Amino acid sequence: MGISVKNISKSYGKVKALEDISFTINHGELFGLIGPDGAGKTTLFRILTTLLIADEGEASVAGYDVFKEYKSIRNHVGYMPGRFSLYQDLSVEENLNFFATIFGTTIEENYDLIKDIYVQIEPFKDRRAGKLSGGMKQKLALSCALIHKPKVLFLDEPTTGVDPVSRKEFWDMLKRLQQKNITILVSTPYMDEAALCDRIALMQDGKILEIDVPGAIVEQYPKAIYNVGANNMYGLIESLNAYEHRHSVFPFGEFVHYTDNRPDFDPASLRRYLERQHLSEIHIEKTQPTIEDTFMELARQ
Ligand SMILES: Nc1ncnc2c1ncn2[C@@H]1O[C@H](COP(=O)(O)OP(=O)(O)OP(=O)(O)O)[C@@H](O)[C@H]1O
Question: Are residues 185 and 72 in the same domain?
Fold first, then answer.
């Protein structure tokens, strides 16, 4: 009764936005679609919310077929598109009333579900949506997507352009909604948010690279990974990229994540090489792979 996707493909002219995608999401799961811009996340959301028809394959949401039973799906899903769906010239309260009315309900009837979120923007209920901050717009858009008590909630990049504190609050809210028996499919380009999902699918160029629980995705990283630092970041990246034994070189905060293609890699040999490149303050230390590292590794295969 969650979501089932079987062999879905969709092209826009020559661009293959989705290529033979299959996966299932269990009822009550918080599932993340993780991938960069252009991976095909929005196309998949639009197919699952019945706004776009796939070229091939089949899919069901909350037990309804996306093609044959599109009307039922529209009544049972909430969709928060990437770009804000709000009416900028309507007030906070008017937006919410509008969405309640088109679904034949009222704010009062379903207030319980949105209460935690809506109380935070209620003091501004007469303010036009266009004049809200990013975090407040996001809360209003979520309230609007929830006003008809959906069984499945689709959130397309809900935290893009939102400050880190509001991002954290938003994920706390999703966890609470999940406890209210709502299946949630959320997309994000932020790899750190992936760890907050029950399971994730890593997507690139219209394909799914991997699906699993976040911990298992990290565990399957195939190599020993090192944090490498030096006095000159630019020179360090250039030197590492030119090193004949490098497997991958990936800037990561104040360090570079480095993997070597020799099975018997000795960090001392890398240190000597970097010294010969006139780098100083060299730091090499083994570290744990992140979801981002796994993504980069899968994406290069
Ligand atoms: N209406 C369209 N016409 C032509 N090409 C499109 C259209 N919509 C999307 N695409 C292309 O399909 C591919 C997948 O786009 P999609 O928007 O689904 O990806 P995304 O992962 O959601 O990325 P973004 O965050 O940029 O929206 C991209 O190459 C995009 O340029």
Answer: yes
Q: Are 47 and 87 in the same domain?
A: yes
Answer whether 35 contacts ligand 1 (Cβ < 6 A): yes
Q: How much is the ipTM here? A: 0.93
Nearest CA to ligand 1 atom 5: 12
* Ligand 1 centroid to residue 254 C-alpha, Å: 32
For residue 296, what are its two tokens? 């980069």
* Residue 232, Ramachandran bin (φ over 0: left; ψ between -120 and 50: alpha; else beta): beta
**Mean confidence (pLDDT) of the chain:** 92
Any ligand 1 atom below 6 A from CB of 40: yes
Q: How far apart are CA 183 and CA 181, in angstroms?
A: 7
For 240-280, write each residue's pLDDT tens digit: 999 999 999 999 989 999 999 999 999 999 999 999 999 99
DSSP per-residue codes, 140-169: HHHHHHHTT--SEEEEESTTTT--HHHHHH
| CATH classification at residue 187 | 3.40.50.300
Q: How do residues 210-231 score in pLDDT, each as one tens digit?
A: 999 999 998 988 899 999 999 9
Tell how far the Cα of 250 is from the centroid of ligand 1, in angstroms: 26
As for how many domains the chain has, the answer is: 2
152-156 β-sheet, strand order? 77-80, 152-156, 183-188, 30-34, 199-204, 207-212
